[in-house]
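Table S2 (text version). Query chain:
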Amino acid sequence: MGRPDRPTALVTGGNRGIGRAIAAGLVARGMRVVIGVRDLEAGRAVAEEIGAQAFRMDVARIDSLGAAVDKIGGVDVLVNNAGVLIDTSMLEDSGGFHMSLDVMLRGPYELIRTCAPHMGAQGWGRIVNVSSEWGSFAQGLEGPGAYGVAKAALNALTKAMVRDLPDCVKINAVDPGWVRTRMGGEAATRTPEEGAETAIWLADLPEDGPTGRFFRDGLSVRW
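Corresponding structure-token output:
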């Protein structure tokens, strides 16, 4: 067993921005790529452009994720990219806090838990959690609302999950930098393609590649 000839990759939030660039990059690597989207019609248009498939998936609806993955089939590469940026006080907006954790922690956790058995059974799997420097204690845990809290929790999940995943499954987090997306804004310094490069590399690591670490621009950085 080992790496399939044509791995199936699931990229959540893959219809725009960094997610779209990651999905396109994995298509270029010969993978069957599925983008998980809330708006299926718009997702299908993007999928057709980049040579992928689109499936309806809302990572905030935790109880629906298992059924969505079943429709896709076995997932070999999971890229937890979907995110929300809710600029409100955590004290005043509990709904925004819970939504942030659902999209950027609970959803990724449930997808990992759902996809891991297939990865373990075939002897190969790669998981990439798209994080942020705002989720780094070393960088000051910044950002508005609960965004940094959720990304810090995603980083913690990345590091701790190594002990429960099969040895053949590698899991890492990536900071794509400040990227020109709907979330990052036009003033951002990087293109989506530049932000996607490290995630694409982590999604197709060789057998001796790293696991349980946090990367930016191909280099390991502090949590």
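Notes on Table S2: DSSP finds six helices and eight strands in the chain. Strands lie at 8-12, 32-37, 53-56, 77-80, 125-130, 169-174, 214-216, 219-220.
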